[in-house]
Amino acid sequence: MENGLFENGLPSVGATALNYIDGKWEGATQERWSDRYDPADQSVLVARSPDSSKQDAARAIDAASRAADEWRTWTAPSRARLLFAWLHWIDERRDEIAELLTREEGKILPESVGEVKRALDILEYTAGIGRRLDGKVYPSDEATVFCYSTPQPLGVVGLISPWNFPVAIPVWKIAPALIAGNTVVLKPSPLTPLTATALVRGLEEVGCPLGVVNLVHGDVEPGEELVSNESVNGISFTGSTKVGKAIARAASERLLKLQLELGGKNPQIVLDDADLDDAVSGVVSGGLGSTGQRCTATSRALVTEKIYDAFLDKLVSRASAMKVGPGIEPGVDMGPLVDQRALNGVTGWLTVGGSEGARLRTGGSRSETSSLAKGLFFQPTVVEAQQGMQITREEIFGPVVAVIKVKDFEEAIGLANSVRYGLTSTVFTRDIARVFSFAERARAGMVHVNRPGVGGYPHVPFGGIKDSGYGGREVGDEVMSFYTETKVVYVNFK
Ligand code: UN1
User: Fold this and answer.
1) 253, 268, 372, 427: which could form a disulfide with 377 (CB 3.0–4.6 Å)?
2) pLDDT above 90 for 31
3) Annotated catalytic residue 261
4) pLDDT band for position 2 (50/70/90)?
5) What is the Å distance from ligand 1's center to 164 Cα?
6) What tens digit of pLDDT does each residue of 464-481 get?
7) Buried (b) or exposed (e) across 426-457, using 16+ Cβ within 10 A?
8) pLDDT tens, residue by residue, 51-109
């Protein structure tokens, strides 16, 4: 029962997404559905998806468990061939997938194109691990004993992915899970069901064996089932710190292996000697790109007093000149917020900021010109604040940058590190000593120097410390430590 979902190859805007369990496309058993409206025009239904129950998730987990024994017998290079086929499948449809992403999530088309490219690069790197998934030989303590280690799959992994990178993040979780020999239940955000459906359709079309990858749409219920069901051996989750901590509490009951990629309140320090235009561009792309809706968003600029006014003037003029509009239209710099809840959240934080004494320099409210009134558009916003105010400590997840005046490098680094998050930290300076001092002292998983504090290479680990991450890095050469377990073997050949 595919209901014409793939009539044109990929799901089209307005389609009803389905679950994919044990190789069959189907609705939720209780026939509950969730509706997703276009963030750029709330009168348009872009997707409907199953609002699955715990039972639906449990059936998907059973299917993944049944498929696990056979799948782990595939050699790693043969699993890699499946991933390369998936890569080609996505590559052939990259423009259509990017367009679907923009219509469903809202980000501007060039950002969607970039995201699909990033997914392909990560897939290329990860598929290549199929020929490098090696263990280790250890020196022996006994003349006739051979001792080695070999990476083993966990079994069934539950992958819970967010709406803000609905192509790249499912790919960067599914690919290493499969290359390691795990079977998968993917639960994407209910805000982006169609992109997830397209990706899983690709795996089906390139011959992924039944039950190896299952897709369950929905919200809290299927997520809870993934965490509590004894047949799931690992969870990789990207989302808020609050939900991540709830998952960690529940998972600790049964010592479930976890990888959590959570929030951020990422600083960019700008020192006296920085190239000011580059530093402003860093905040514009890091803080306002993707409408500020990324865990890595640069939401604080810590700027030394000597250049503070010049920096602020440039930032305000760049931000206020940005063209806000539907992501699908050419020439637009920033798309809408993802949903009404996000819009309420951003508005609420700005009210809090105002009551704390933060000074609004540009933006600050919804864009409601007649052509934008139907969408969830918000103006690019810059506020002057003091470190310590709530808006400089809590994640806003919208296009809001707080600019904070600092005396010098020492004060900047102290304030940069003063929040509970530790995802990315950035500095703009030409002073080589400060570059390395910053790289050493920044309490963050990812440090950027003289470049925006977002993004990352496909072969480099991605993730944070403190409240930003838990349980090992995603992407790059460290990702396999989550998706595999080390087994050591002692062979006596006397
Ligand atoms: C990026 O910095 O380009 O959820 C990606 C997030 C991150 C991905 C950010 N996991 O925003």
Assistant:
1) 372
2) no
3) yes
4) low
5) 8
6) 999 999 999 999 989 999
7) bbbbeeeebbebbeeebbbbbbbbeebbbbbe
8) 999 999 999 999 999 999 999 999 999 999 999 999 999 999 999 999 999 999 999 99
- The band of 222, judged by pLDDT with boundaries at 50, 70 and 90, is very high
CATH topology of domain 266-457: Aldehyde Dehydrogenase; Chain A, domain 2 (3.40.309)
How does 343-358 read in b/e, with b if 16+ C-beta sit within 10 Å? bebbeebbeebeeeeb
Asked if 316 contacts 282 with a C-beta cutoff of 8 angstroms, the reply is no
Helix residue spans in 209-304 (DSSP H): 220-228, 241-252, 276-283
pLDDT bucket at 419, cuts 50 / 70 / 90: very high
Instruction: Report the SS3 class of residue 235.
Output: strand
- For residue 455 and ligand 1, the question of a CB distance below 6 A is answered with yes
Phi then psi for residue 365, to 5 deg, are: -150, 175
Instruction: Tell me, using a 6 A CB cutoff, whether residue 165 lines ligand 1.
Output: yes
Stretch (H or E) spanning 50: strand 41-50
Task: Enter the tokens of residue 128.
Answer: 């290549």
Question: Does residue 261's CB lie within 6 angstroms of at least one atom of ligand 1?
Answer: yes
Q: Which long-range contacts (C-beta less than 8 Å, at least 24 apart) are formed by 112-115?
A: 112/167, 112/327, 115/165, 115/167, 115/168
Contact 291, 335 (CB under 8 A): yes
Angle made by CA atoms 130, 187, 159, in degrees to the nearest 5: 35
Domain range summary for the chain, segments of one domain joined by +: 6-262+468-492, 266-457
Q: Which two tokens stand for residue 476?
A: 């790059």
Fold of 6-262+468-492: Aldehyde Dehydrogenase; Chain A, domain 1 (3.40.605)
Q: How far, in Å, is the centroid of ligand 1 from the Cα of 210?
A: 30
Residue 19 in contact with residue 56, Cβ under 8 Å? yes
User: Rounded distance, CA 41 to CA 19, Å?
Assistant: 26
Inter-CA distances, 182 with 19, 102, 123, 156, 280, Å: 20, 31, 16, 6, 44
Residues 179, 72: Cα–Cα separation, whole Å: 10
Closest ligand 1 atom to Cα of 297:
2
Average pLDDT, the chain: 97
237, burial (CB in 10 Å: exposed 0-12, middle 13-18, buried 19+): buried
Measured in Å, residue 169 CA sits from the centre of ligand 1 at 8
